[in-house]
Amino acid sequence: MSRRIVVVTAGLTVPSSTRLLADQLAEATTAQVTARGESADMEFIELREVAGELATFMVTGGIPTPRLTELREQVAAADGMIVVTPVFNGSYSGLFKMFFDALDKDSLAGTPVLIAATAGSARHSLVLDHALRPLFAYLRAVVVPTGIFAATEDFGSHGLSDRITRAAAELAALVLSQGGYGVGGFAPDLAARPRRTSGTKVAADVTPFGDLLRGHAGEA
Amino acid sequence: MQFGIFSVGDVTTDPTDGRTPSEAERISAMTQYALKAEEVGLDVFATGEHHNPPFVVSSPTTHLGFIAAQTEKLLLSTSTTLITTNDPVKIAEDYAFLQHVSGGRVDLMMGRGNTGPVYPWFGKDIRDGIKLAVENYHLLRKLWREPVVNWQGQFRTPLQGYTSTPAPLDGTPPFVWHGSIRSTEIAEQAAYYGDGFFHNHIFWNKEHTEQMVKLYRRRFEHYGHGAADQAYVGLGGQAFMASTEAEAKRVFRPYFDNAPVYGHGPSMEDFTEMTPLTVGTPEQVIERTLGFADYVGDYQRQLFLMDHAGLPTSLALEQIEMLGTEVVPVLRTEFERRRPAHVPSDPPTHASLVAAGPDAPHHLVEPARARAEELAQQAEVTA
């Protein structure tokens, strides 16, 4: 079974060093998944291309454009994610945050995520642990232990590719170990619960109204 | 099929001349729209309810009573009545009173409100929005159907030996719609009671509207009120018309670009593509509107938003005139032509509900209760 890995990249220019890092992470992850006898499909989401649609989504109180609906469904169906943002004023870029603000709050639950950021200087390196990690913790994603921070000077060093390999190996291991919570019936089966939602579909199963009315029918 | 207009009652600056109407002018304009609606043969005028600027529509029964006095046939409705923050006891009284003064020309659409602060202003918590809608509406049903009500719920002070006055006209409560853009619980509520479901339809993509209406229809059948395609569906719609498409776009664009809700967002072309908004000729509006039934099924009520975003009164009146004289007559014929015989053309009216007699399910507080219990038992047996 091939695993779907969605790569979200929030670089603003073309070419972008953020995209360059995203490509390297995707390649390394593919190699690590392949090394374990499985295959991975990398699906790239360039946030720059939907910047206008994200702004529209925000200012219209969440009216989804067809393209955003597709992206939200793509994310909710991913087996793993690689997310890369440039650092602006000590944090992820606004474009990056807008995308995750546009997702359903359950769309990343339990999903392995590799976090990465690019910046001009190593002074921003704590952005991974002060900004990205809390964001994905809130979304109940599983963030891999190694985050990748690349300052401009890192693109001329050997250490970066070692770290990329390590992070990719961690992500691959998490992606491939998903599902299967042991012998059925002995513990609550979390995997059997409704998994993640993209927020783009009306739920097919509804709570019967009798249950909604319970305690509210006012029999004095 | 019923056709009409619905307003949200926003006071918005006209972007073409920078002029903002006073609240008095806006209220007077809305009255004129209602009178124009009757004059050109539309069936329904519905007003929103809001308790915050830039809206003026805080007191729908006052306004609808004033309109009732000046009209003969027009059906007066809301779009929507806040079932969450209003006292259901006051809703029961106010709308029964309006039934009496208007000769039964009243129905209501229930909704939950548009902004968070409205809840605390009225002593409520927005996190209870759905629960409030469930409990308050149930109490409202009882007040309209039981002569003496004893009540203890979670949200309102208890009632002992309370009789709502006046009783509904002819002992027959008004028909109720439940309006919701995306809460499945509200579609379920409408289905449970056999009430109508209204999708505002103007801000969202049709795929979403389709899913919400399908859910309501499926559950309407589930609770034994009839077949899914016989459920009572109402839709919103939005149009701006001129003799040519280019002219309609030229005139409407500044209003679109600065409109509340979607202004400063998508382009008019993108929004037209994504939602039911049609900016063009009456023929284009007809074609688009007929297409709504392709994805929600044959339905019973179509309301159009024609008066927002700062459109001057004269322009809005022209639009209502075109709607009534050029668009709706064709829609009536064409919708009837495609409608299967077993699907009701109109939603229930006061006359049809009175004619159905006092033993009709409409007079029960919980018309689906027996059916729901039976279904729950079946589920237990199979489990």
β-strand percent of chain A reads: 15-25%
Number of strands of chain B: 12
Sheet/helix structural class of chain B = alpha/beta
Order of helices and strands of chain A: EHEHHEEHEHEEHH
Task: Tell me the structural class of chain A.
Answer: alpha/beta
Number of E-type strands of chain A:
7
Tell me the greatest interface: A-B, 27 and 46 residues
- The rounded distance between the terminal residues' Cα atoms of chain A is 58 Å
Low-confidence stretches of chain B: none
Multimer state: heterodimer
SSE order of chain B, one letter for each helix or strand:
EHEHEEHEHHEEEHEHEHHEHEHHH
Q: Can you give the helix content of chain A as a percent range?
A: 25-40%
Rg estimate of chain B, integer Å: 20 Å
Mean pLDDT of chain B: 96
Number of helices of chain B: 13
Give the overall silhouette of chain A: globular
* Molecular shape of chain B: globular
Low-confidence runs of at least 5 consecutive residues of chain A: none
Amino- and carboxy-terminal Cα gap of chain B: 43 Å
**Main sheet summary of chain A:** 7 strands, mixed
Radius of gyration of CA atoms of chain A, rounded to a whole number: 19 Å
Keywords (chain A): Flavoprotein, FMN, Oxidoreductase
Organism (chain A): Nocardioides cavernae
Domain NADPH-dependent FMN reductase-like (chain A): 4-154
Protein name (chain A): FMN reductase
